[in-house]
Every structure is written in C-alpha cells, then in structure tokens.
Design goal:
334 residues, Elongation Factor Tu (Ef-tu), domain 3, Rossmann fold, six-stranded antiparallel sheet, six-stranded parallel sheet
C-alpha cells in the first residue's frame, strides 16, 4: 500500500496505520493517545477513500473536508495525505497555579482572544520551547466575564508536562482545540444527569455541572467522584458550595481505601455520601433510572469502558452517553 506525503511515495506494511508508517519512514507527526481519542494526529487526505473508523469522533465539518485520525487509519487504497491544522492554535500564558488536592494542580490560562469552547471539552496544551503536548479538560465556563481557562493537572512522578507546569507561572504556552463532546446539552432542563469520573476526570464533570446550573437545569444531577482515598476527592468545599444554590445536585464519593466509610466525619466530605467501594459498583448500586439520563463518564479508561457498558445494559441510551477516557501518551513507535 502506497501513501504520498510531502512529495514522497511511502510504502505501508500490511495492517500498518498511516501514523506508524509515516513515523517508520522518519516523518514527525504530533500524536498522544494513538487510539483515536485525543485528535492530535489529524491529517488531511487529498486523494483516496478513507475508512470510516479513521474519521470517528471528528466534527462533520472536518469529515467532509477529508480530515482523518492517522493513528487509527489503515487505508484500503492508495492515499495522498498532507499536514492539516484541523483545530486552531492559540497563544496564551500561565496566569495562575494552585494546589487543590494531593497531587492535583489547578492551572489558570489567560483566555486567548477568539477561543470558543464549552465547559467539559479538552484542549491540547503545548509547550512552545520543544513542542511537548498533553491533553487537559476545561472546567471553566465560557462567556462574558470569563478571563481564564481552568485546567486540572495530575502531578505525575517524572511527568514531563506536569513537572514543568508547577513552576511555569507566567510562561508562554499554546492551546489547540477545543475537542470532545463532553459538554452540557442545552434544551433539556428536566433531564436527569449522571456524571461519574476518577481523579482529574472531575474537571470536565465540574464544567458540565457548572454549565447545567448556569442554564437553570431543573432535573436531578448525580455527581460521582472516585479516588484511592478520601483525600483524593479534591475540591469538595467548592462542590458543597454548589449545593446551596442547587438542591437537585447530589454528591457521592467513592474510595478504594477500606478504612474510609460513609460515617468518616471528614469535614471535607460533609454534605455528601461516601462509600468504600469501586466507583462502578457505587454508581450501579444507586439504581438511578437510566432510561432518560444523559451520562458523562471521565477518567481512567478501564473504568470508563466498564461503566459505559454497564450503564447501557442498565437502560441508558448510547446516544446519550458521553465517554471521555484519559489516555496517557504512548512511547513513539520504533
């Protein structure tokens, strides 16, 4: 199989993706998850038919222009492809840094002029000095009076981006996007919402809750957050504050540490329920009626896949399940 890229005819091996083939021939293409989720590796086909999988998750406006995800594109015929800026790149800087939980950094970026987003979507954050790039979800609302993008960054041991960000106050960065369909759907003020996530998967869920409350959502809102222990359920003071204006909001914490219990008495967890059980078990045991729910799932990919399947079998409509797994960047293919 031959693809043509930047004036060269390159041969793909049987079953090889466009991204793997380009990298094997020495081309440099941005990539992160390599699973068709983060959309960092988008290219454009100028000739040839694209497999449907290679365009899954892209906006209709991008699909009709023959943009595709090179990491999952195994072509069935010859293609001519070129680099593509499928999403605009915006320059900004780190305006604020705040430790909001054990190993979680809230990063405030100055809102770039012209950048439009929905709370809960994600951006690719790029370090201009070397092109290092990572995806982060947006917890902040758009609109008049908003001057920052709020990102929640897990501080990973040896993390190239998270380690740098801890001391990057004032540093120049770039964001590309936004991407993803994890955002509040207007016009459904009475529909029940179920939101579940682990770790910094709380960021997009918090964005959706904020957008729902701003829209005047009347239906019940079930928010579940999972962590290894109670200390990992960060931002609980801010979540509890939302209860004052939103009696329809129900907060539930899930921890894996068996020493925690629903009667732990932790002031951080006052006003919510706390269970020492895996998040998927806690969500399913709650028996929220699924038929009318709109569901948002974020965080660890295994948990997201498991919950997506279980909630579908419990009656949730696939069209109303928004799944946004957090996939770590993989090593560059050799």
């Amino acid at each position: 199989m031959i693809i043509r890229f930047e004036g060269k005819a390159l041969e793909l091996r049987a079953g090889e993706t466009v991204l793997d083939g380009l990298e094997r021939h020495g081309a440099r293409v941005p990539s992160l998850c390599r699973k068709g989720v983060c959309q960092a590796c988008v290219l454009k086909a100028t000739r040839g038919a694209l497999p449907a999988l290679s365009q899954k998750g892209l906006k209709d406006s991008l699909r009709v222009q023959s943009f595709f995800l090179s990491c999952v594109c195994t072509p069935g015929e010859e293609l001519d492809v070129e680099r593509a800026e499928a999403a605009a790149l915006f320059s900004t800087h780190v305006e604020s840094l705040e430790l909001i939980g054990p190993g979680v950094l809230r990063v405030g970026l100055a809102l770039p002029p012209g950048f439009e987003h929905e709370a809960g979507q994600f951006v690719q954050l790029e370090r201009p000095s070397d092109g290092l790039m990572r995806p982060y979800s947006i917890a902040s609302l758009p609109g008049v009076g908003v001057s920052r993008l709020e990102l929640h960054v897990a501080l990973l041991s040896g993390g190239a981006m998270s380690g740098w960000l801890q001391t990057a106050l004032g540093a120049s960065v770039a964001v590309r996007g936004p991407f993803g369909g994890c955002f509040y759907v207007p016009g459904e003020l009475d529909r029940p919402l179920l939101l579940a996530g682990t770790g910094t998967g709380l960021a997009p869920l918090l964005g959706v809750v904020r957008a729902a409350l701003r829209a005047g959502h009347r239906g019940p809102i079930h928010l579940y957050h999972g962590a290894a222990n109670a200390a990992g359920l960060y931002l609980w003071d801010e979540l509890r504050a939302l209860l004052v204006e939103a009696p329809q909001l129900r907060l539930t914490g899930s921890v894996l540490d068996g020493r925690e219990s629903a009667s732990s008495g932790s002031p951080m967890l006052a006003g919510c329920r706390l269970f020492a059980a895996p998040l998927d078990q806690v969500v399913l045991d709650d028996r929220v009626p699924m038929a009318d729910c709109r569901v948002y799932l974020c965080g660890h990919p295994e948990l997201v896949r498991k919950l997506e399947k279980k909630l579908y079998l419990a009656g949730a409509a696939l069209a109303r399940i928004h799944a946004d797994p957090f996939l770590p960047p993989l090593a560059r293919a050799s």
